[in-house]
Amino acid sequence: xxxxxxxxxxxxxxxxxxxxxxxxxxxxxxxxxxxxxxxxxxxxxxxxxxxxxxxxxxxxxxxxxxxxxxxxxxxxxxxxxxxxxxxxxxxxxxxxxxxxxxxxxxxxxxxxxxxxxxxxxxxxxxxxxxxxxxxxxxxxxxxxxxxxxxxxxxxxxxxxxxxxxxxxxxxxxxxxxxxxxxxxxxxxxxxxxxxxxxxxxxxxxxxxxxxxxxxxxxxxxxxxxxxxxxxxxxxxxxxxxxxxxxxxxxxxxxxxxxxxxxxxxxxxxxxxxxxxxxxxxxxxxxxxxxxxxxxxxxxxxxxxxxxxxxxxxxxxxxxxxxxxxxxxxxxxxxxxxxxxxxxxxxxxxxxxxxxxxxxxxxxxxxxxxxxx
Length: 372
What we know:
With 372 residues, this protein is mainly alpha-helical. Helices cover 73% and strands 4% of the residues. The chain contains 13 helices and 4 strands. The strands form 2 sheets. The chain has a two-stranded antiparallel sheet with strand order 1-2. Strands 3-4 form a two-stranded antiparallel ribbon. Strand 3 and strand 4 (291-294) form a beta hairpin. Helix 10 packs antiparallel against helix 13 (340-365).
């Protein structure tokens, strides 16, 4: 959806993207409460929710980045904290009448408490009310930064195709996000099948994971803005996330698993909150054939180029998150319920992402100390 929102934003259709995406998301959550078959969720959750959230996220991130420069990392980190508090990724099994929220702290707790008491349909309607209460003030308050009137077609930044540091960073973010959500998706099932814990304890572990994810979305961006820079902070966060995914393989006790879970959630939070600021930082110098020169000030043209580059990165991340978790599930199925293949795939993918990000940093400024 970022490929669509970028030209729409360049033409001044922020309200269409943000408000329209909000209405589409609300409608999809409400319609989910009336789903009775598994295939019903494909057009509702797979298409409507995806388009709605894509419109909201793509337009919201661009507007946020237009207001902040010095403290962009912290601003995007604070904005991303909502994902740790509640992100409704819904799975519905008609046979078992079970509702599981893949991520967040609020929605898993709401679902666990209300499904046994009022059933799946009314639980989803309660969640729809929560979504409305959070989206309504955002739609009232959020507005596009005042700029000059747009004229002409959307601008395309063709220099990104030979900007090697930017391409390495985009590839690194793709591989990082290809594996990083496998832990979030399969943590509950792994804990139940391998550690033999109750469903209540497994849901508590999921909430714990997202609770640890919350400071990870705040502290690394704060460190990035204060002294290190977004890419310098993103690289160790990515490598740490990969390390704890490898540690997950050897976590056989509940105590060790919980400690690994918290450490992984914190490191993953840094990855999830810093990539927007890293795109901005890496786009400050465009590597043209006539040498690098500073761009992306406050001109309309430079802002349009930034939106194009951000759209390219978000598209790569979107493909990665769309295919990563299903590939992990396929590996689990191929190994007859074993998680080793999915764990190795997730950890190695995130590790490769960290290496590529380090390569982007080296290609841009070398190994010298620099705020990047």
